[in-house]
Amino acid sequence: MLSGSNRNDILSVEVPLGDRSYQIEIGPDQIDTFSQTVLSTMSDLTHVLVIADAAIQEPWANRLIHSLSTSLRDDATPLRVSSISVPSGETSKSISQLSELWQWMLDSSTDRRSVVIAVGGGVVGDLAGFAAASFTRGIRFVQVPTTLLAMVDSSVGGKTGINLPTSKNMIGAFWQPSLVVIDTDVLSTLPERAYLSGLAEVIKYGVIDDAEFFAWLEANASGLVARDDGTVRAAIAESCQSKARVVGEDERETSGRRAILNYGHTFAHAIEATVGYGQLLHGEAVSIGMQMAANMAVDLGICEPTLLPRQTELIQACGLPTTFPEANAEAMLPVMQRDKKVSHGKLRFILPERIGSVRLVGDIDPSSVVKAIESCR
Amino acid sequence: MLSGSNRNDILSVEVPLGDRSYQIEIGPDQIDTFSQTVLSTMSDLTHVLVIADAAIQEPWANRLIHSLSTSLRDDATPLRVSSISVPSGETSKSISQLSELWQWMLDSSTDRRSVVIAVGGGVVGDLAGFAAASFTRGIRFVQVPTTLLAMVDSSVGGKTGINLPTSKNMIGAFWQPSLVVIDTDVLSTLPERAYLSGLAEVIKYGVIDDAEFFAWLEANASGLVARDDGTVRAAIAESCQSKARVVGEDERETSGRRAILNYGHTFAHAIEATVGYGQLLHGEAVSIGMQMAANMAVDLGICEPTLLPRQTELIQACGLPTTFPEANAEAMLPVMQRDKKVSHGKLRFILPERIGSVRLVGDIDPSSVVKAIESCR
Ligand SMILES: NC(=O)c1ccc[n+]([C@@H]2O[C@H](COP(=O)([O-])OP(=O)(O)OC[C@H]3O[C@@H](n4cnc5c(N)ncnc54)[C@H](O)[C@@H]3O)[C@@H](O)[C@H]2O)c1
Ligand SMILES: NC(=O)c1ccc[n+]([C@@H]2O[C@H](COP(=O)([O-])OP(=O)(O)OC[C@H]3O[C@@H](n4cnc5c(N)ncnc54)[C@H](O)[C@@H]3O)[C@@H](O)[C@H]2O)c1
Ligand SMILES: [Zn+2]
Ligand SMILES: [Zn+2]
Known about the structure:
Family (chains A, B): Belongs to the sugar phosphate cyclases superfamily. Dehydroquinate synthase family.
Domain 3-dehydroquinate synthase C-terminal (chains A, B): 198-342
CATH architecture of the largest domain in chain A: Up-down Bundle
Organism (chains A, B): Novipirellula galeiformis
Oligomer: homodimer
Number of domains of chain A: 2
Strand order of the largest sheet of chain A: 1-2-9-6-5-3-4
InterPro entries (chains A, B): Dehydroquinate_synthase (IPR050071), DHQ_synth_AroB (IPR016037), DHQ_synth_fam (IPR030963), DHQS/DOIS_N (IPR030960), DHQS_C (IPR056179)
Number of helices of chain A: 13
Shape of chain A: globular
Bound molecules: nicotinamide-adenine-dinucleotide, zinc ion
EC number (chains A, B): 4.2.3.4
CATH class of the largest domain in chain A: Mainly Alpha
């Protein structure tokens, strides 16, 4: 386990992608010294474009902008700072919002050496990342994730993009950031339910990739829920480590390896689509989805018997749901059959074999799917 | 020199980009056998999306669609073919046209294995290429260029994109095609002035990269202007070879090498911007721009003395202009100073040293620029 015991310890995780490798810096108190971190990674910097979620302009983005505006480069000239805020919420991942950003970048005299800084949750990270990927065929960008989900998942791995009116994440690019700065202090303003929702993805990494981390989570669940600083920092670092490892093995989702990150997600997407987006938070749907997947694995006889009870207990200890009485198998099944992981009517799922190990299982009968859904009602 | 003497010879040029390498196939009679060419490159193909310039739907795109629709894959199942046409002209490289394509791709059940086929000039190639680059973070695409400019320049090298209302090519991606198919027969419907305009880029390759090719062009100018099939084919192949070599050395415009392709273009862009786009065709502006650059090189004493007269004669033999009486140095200079190749008020130009060799020269005084412009009035 990576760990930082002192209040000011910064944990570093590398995403290993050859000449596109980058660091994730995790720790408290990073907003006010942000400009130093960025300048030490990109010494040629002269112009930054800060794109922030409107809801966190105050208290977080303005401090970061202040840090950038008052900093001096080696030759004693100041950085040129442009900034804009984006309305909160999934609807900002749209063509019209993207077009506005493009025009604003042009009006701000953005050139190939400019750097985009995305400050917010997954919405702003995905949107601003794609704006960076596509402006003059790609400029550098930095992720400053401010939700737990964005810290452990969306800010790492280079998936950027927007939605089409009827379909999520259809447009985008694989475009890696040059740096990810995670200031754990910003979690202090994140509402309880949003925070806990992010823990679902943390638990996911334990199940799919790292039994030791899973055991550590079991031992530290109460500290996590209480947002104990050192515990949160270590959990984020381990999660980023897992994601970095998987992304490093399959950057563009071509080998299939990256699919393990979808553990619980085929069920979760079907839940989200059938109850209407927004009723359940994403991490809540993922928790239930992981339970459905684990039940299916048990049912198919491919899963070590202690996994399901341990997973159930950890999810509950993190204040997340393990059942969903409204789950409607009849409505969910057709959604899953439209999912990309379907081949010839049969379904495919990422299923756990034991804590720390999952695999893609194809050829699954719709009746097994229904049974798995019903096991969590 | 590559050459194809028989009517049915197909010349092949490889663009060497590691695992992104691809072939350019150049020859007549390729539209009706197009499906075979594509299927032999991409055996896993099940769905193609043909995006064509409206002006060439008849006579060319429909034949290509017919070839695709009637073809059978190895397992005897037909290809699924979706097709759409895009209005001719630069205004199609817009956000609204791109959004329409994205929605159409979604409605056509496009997935990661689908392949976009761009049939048209540089406008459709750039637009459809970026649609391919950005749909589900990138799907494969094939270029079928139908103007001479697109055959020798825009279809090769992976630059794709659209314009913002006030600025050309601001949005896009480096996204390499999987295959370029150049059917020289389609040039038969291209108007004379558009055809000759494309020859400017052909001459450019001789000056910047290949003295032997330049000499061959001098000897074959009349055959080129008369659109003699074997001559045209060889000129396209040599041009693609030059562009492929430069792109292979500097795929993403990072080393500076790719800048040599801008020979004549800093002047040309300033001419185009000051006379209003459309009055001069791009290749006409490039011809004049190369003359201005050569005059500047002579003036600075860095250019072998026979270059300017030889270049002048070849441009004229290709029916292209070498002077531009309306050139307005006072209007052009500020445009060039806004250009990306300016650093600290001084200007930078790609200038010829001798036939086959150019270099980037910085620190050029505005007075030299004015003199070069005036030398071509
Ligand atoms: N790129 C990827 O790999 C990837 C992975 C997973 C999810 N995603 C995407 O991420 C998005 C979801 O991300 P999210 O859950 O972070 O949602 P989000 O960005 O909408 O943020 C959730 C809410 O929290 C608010 N907020 C953000 N930081 C805050 C803070 N520090 N204090 C108080 N409020 C704060 C936001 O204003 C918003 O209302 C989805 O669009 C999803 O598609 C992308
Ligand atoms: N991607 C690159 O590397 C690159 C390089 C150079 C230029 N470009 C771009 O290319 C575009 C210009 O390309 P273009 O000159 O091919 O223009 P274009 O695509 O607009 O085509 C010119 C005209 O010819 C017509 N046409 C096309 N093929 C025809 C045929 N076979 N018969 C009859 N008419 C035909 C079209 O309808 C159009 O009206 C610009 O947008 C420029 O930015 C891109
Ligand atoms: Zn998720
Ligand atoms: Zn050109």
